[in-house]
Amino acid sequence: ILRQVAAKNRGISCDYYPVLRLGDGNITWGPPTRNITSGFKITSDFFRVTCKARRGRLMYDRVHAGVALTQDRSERPEVPLDEGFGGLGVAILGFDSMSRMSWLRRLPKTRAYFHDVLGAIELEHHNIVGDGTTAVMLPMLTGKFEWELPECRRNFPNATTMDDFPFLWHDFKKAGYLTSWSNAAPFTAPFNYRMLGFEHQPTDFYTRPFYLAAHNLTQKDEPFCMGSQSQSQVWLNYFRDIFVMYKEKRKFLLHFLVEMSHDDNNLITMMDDDIKRLVHFLYTGGYLNNTLLILMGDHGARYSEVRSTWSGKMEERLPYMSFLFPKWFERKFPEAMKHFRANRKRLTTPFDMHETFRDFLQFGGIGSGDLDQRGISLFKEIPSNRTCSHAGIAPHWCSCLSWEAVSPADPGATKAMQTTIQTINRFTSGYRPRCALLSITNVTSLTKLQTNRDVLKFTQADSDGGISRLDFNSSNESGYVLYQLTFGTSPGGGEFEVTVTNDVLRQHFSLNETDISRINKFGNNSACILKEAKQIRQYCYCKNNIHHDI
């Protein structure tokens, strides 16, 4: 309590309530500690403090985040890692919807300090493998696509929580690392919005209970504030405090911020000084002597006006990814770091990140990467002739392909448009009483894949809507042509980008859901089905909105 406040309000008293997790969906308050004073030692990472004046008038009621010093964390035994990189830690700060180019434009001070002064290594051709944050996090943390893992989506038969998924943090914890998963948007978090999340707390530091509690207490007219601090500063401070409290411990930390860049990249400009200041604090304080620090975006902007342009399309597929190693690491492992630097200009994906992190626990060697492996550690040299097909990137998401414009009158293009709208309407057919039938109103872009040959050659497809592998050099006689469309729909003003596949031999047009991108915001347009069918929210325009629009 500030002295000047106590002087004006004699008899003021404050109580401390730990935040207790009740699964992934709820929290409660633990037993209170009454009349706390300055210097009180916190017993939990997240807690509520209430202060009352002498006559019981409530003067203060906030939830706070700190890092408690616990025996389990501080005394955790560390497993010898002779086959890894000597127990080097990994700490990741991720920012939603930040492409590499947007990072350069909007966080110039952070980038200049991280890259130019400290010598961080940026990946210049880092390509996403699917739509949205979950399609980045699962490949990076488990090495698998969503459909390769057990069913975990809400309201789906036999769905389970994600506790037993092969997340890397389980392996790091077994090796004695302190682990953390932090997402500052509890209601749209990648493992909770469409999915069932976790029954048991997945990591040592887990901020979901804090953000659920903060949502209940934060003033709704202060969307970016938590009391006298910005939400982004609270998020950065918690990351910092883990280092301060457990400086010498191995760490595997992944902290992800949504609010300052998801809807509008311009807002994150306000964080430039704060992020730079945090990196400077960690570096000059010696906190990164045993830790690799990664700054990253999950993908580029998906819904901004720029997204409808060619450059916006490319930016969505090419997020920011940058690594700062301790100076001693490159001296100790020069060959591995030579390959890492060479890979700056090679095609990389979240699957490669997964393999790289695995090397910290058990080193897989150096040399040249195997093109038959979907993921290649960045400590191996990625072959320069690697293609999207090698890397598990569907044509819809591949930034390396060359497309040529075609006329809407082209018979193939006409059929592609018909297939597209039929497919989208089929997704909502089970909810037709609530979801309107959509039609295409305008086509703003229509292209066909242009390669050295007239058609792509099909080599492998996933049976349940996964990656189609397309080989540019196969002698297979079964040809495939891809059409990419950008268009608007009515009612509701939806904007989409899709990639349709034509089996030339059979003249069969098909469209997987993984090849559809919603590229403008849909807000509450699908509110009528959100409780039971979040998976179709981008396609459903609720009929009850039509009357409001008139």
From TrEMBL:
InterPro entries: Alkaline_phosphatase_core_sf (IPR017850), DUF229 (IPR004245). The lineage of its organism: Eukaryota, Metazoa, Spiralia, Lophotrochozoa, Mollusca. This is Uncharacterized protein. Pfam families: DUF229. It comes from Biomphalaria glabrata (Bloodfluke planorb). GO terms for cellular component: extracellular space.
